[in-house]
Amino acid sequence: ISYPLKFITTKKGKNMTAVLQNKDTANGNTLYMALELSNKKWKLVFSDGARYRIKSIDAGNWAVLLDEINQAREKFRLPVGCRIASCYEAGRDGFWIDRALKAAGIENLVVDSSSIEVSRRRKQVKTDRVDVKALLRLLMRYHHGEKAALRGIRVPEICAEDQRRINRERERLIKERGAHSARIKSLFKLHGINLERMSEFPTLIQTAKGAVTGYDLPVDLKLELQREYQRYQLVDQQIKAIEKEQVERVAEGDQLGLQKINHLRTLKGLGWQSSWVLIMEFFNWRNFSNAKQLGSCAGLTPTPYDSGDSTREQGISKAGNKRIRKVMIELSWLWLRYQPDSVLSRWFETRFGRGGKRMRRIGIVALARKLLIALWRYLEHGVLPEGAILKAI
C-alpha cells in the first residue's frame, strides 16, 4: 500500500522545479486480518497491503481460523513466522478471542465500534463483506502510524473481568425484582386494591376484597399473584446473598482491589455499592496518567459543536462505562448532602445552587467529573478531597 504522492519543490533561479517523490510505507512481511463476528458465521478478510482474500468460517471454529491464516500467508507468499496483525469489534463475544489470538502469537486490537469511520451519505451500503473490508483498511492505516484511525479497548485480565460479575448480577437482579413488584401491584390495582409495601402481601392476598362491591378476588388471579410473589422472594433472597458475599469478601480478602474498597468507604457519603462499582469497574485494573484521561474514559467530557457562526454545546460524550456515570451522578447528590462543607460542595452551591432545577442538573454533571478526579487522587496518591470528612468503618 502506498500513501499519497508527495511533491517537493526546488528553486533554480527564477524557475520552479517539481520533484515527484513516492513514499511507500508498507511492510511487506505483515499479514493483516480483520474479523466480522456473528452468532453463526465469522467473516475473515486478509491482506498483505496490496491484495485481499475473504473467507467465511463457522463461528468459534478455532482450528479452521488458524488454517485460514496459514493459507492466506502462503497465498500472499509471506515468510513463515511473519508478523500477523488482526482486529475485531468489541461485542457479545467479549475478550476470549483476543486472548486466544495473542496466545497464538498474533497481534490483536479490540476495536471500539464508535471509533470506526462511517460514510456521511444518507443511504449507506451495509453488509458483512463491506464492513470487514472497511475495518481492515482502518487497521492497516493504524499500523502504518495513523493511531487516530482506530481506538482500541483495554482488555482486562481474567481475574479483573470476573470481579465485575457480582455487581453486574446484583444490578440485573434489582431490575428484575422491581419488575415483579410492579407486576404484583398492577394486578391488585385491576380490582381497586393498593399494595403499599411488599411485606404486606401475605396478609393482603388473604383478606383483599374488590373495591366498592367487596367481591372475593378471582381464583386464577390469586394463583398468578402467588407465583409472582414467589419469584419476587427468590430474587430478593439472591440480592441479599450477593450483598452478604460482598461484605465477607472485603472483610476476609487481602487483594488490592478489596483494600481500595475499604479505603474509599472511609469518605462520608460513600457506601458499599458505590465503592464496589467504582473499584471493580474502573480503578482496579485501569491506569490513568492524568485527569483528562479519567474524565474521557468515564464519558463525562463536553462535546462542543463550533463551526463557523454556529456554536453550541452538545452535552457530555457518554463514552466509556455507563455504570460509572450513573454511580457518579448519584454520589454527587450524596456528596452535597453529607459533605456540605467541602470545597467541591461550596463550588457547586456558588456556581449552580442559586439557579433553577435545570441549572442544578447541569451542574451536578460537572460536579460528578470533579468528584471522580478527586476520588482518583484519593485512591492513587492519598490526597484527601479538600474539606472532606472521614468516617469510621
Low-confidence residue ranges: 1-26
What class would the helix/strand composition place it in? alpha/beta
Strand order in space, largest sheet? 5-4-3-6-7
Which overall shape is indicated by the principal axes computed on the Cα atoms?
Answer: globular
- Share in β-strands: 15-25%
The Cα radius of gyration reads 29 Å
Mean pLDDT across residues: 89
In DSSP terms, counting alpha (H) and pi (I) runs of 4 or more, how many helices? 13
Span of the ends, CA to CA: 61 Å
For the sheet with most strands, the description reads: 5 strands, mixed
> Which H/E pattern describes the elements?
EEEEEHEHEHHHHHHHHEEHHH
What is the strand tally?
9
Helical fraction equals 40-55%
Protein model, in words:
The protein has 393 residues and is an alpha/beta fold. It is 49% helix and 16% strand. It is built from 13 helices and nine strands. Strands 5-4-3-6-7 form a five-stranded mixed β-sheet, sandwiched between helices. Strand 1 and strand 2 form a beta hairpin. Helix 10 crosses helix 13 and helix 11 packs across helix 13. The N terminus is likely disordered.
Summarize this, please?
The chain is of the alpha/beta class.
List the helices and strands and how they pair.
Elements: E1 6-12, E2 15-21, E3 30-37, E4 41-47, E5 52-58, H1 62-75, E6 83-89, H2 96-103, E7 107-111, H3 128-143, H4 158-163, H5 165-189, H6 201-207, H7 219-252, H8 256-265, H9 272-283, H10 291-298, E8 302-307, E9 310-316, H11 322-338, H12 343-351, H13 357-381
Parallel strand pairs: 3-6, 6-7
Antiparallel strand pairs: 1-2, 3-4, 4-5, 8-9
Helix pairs in contact: 5-7, 8-9, 9-11, 10-13, 11-13, 12-13
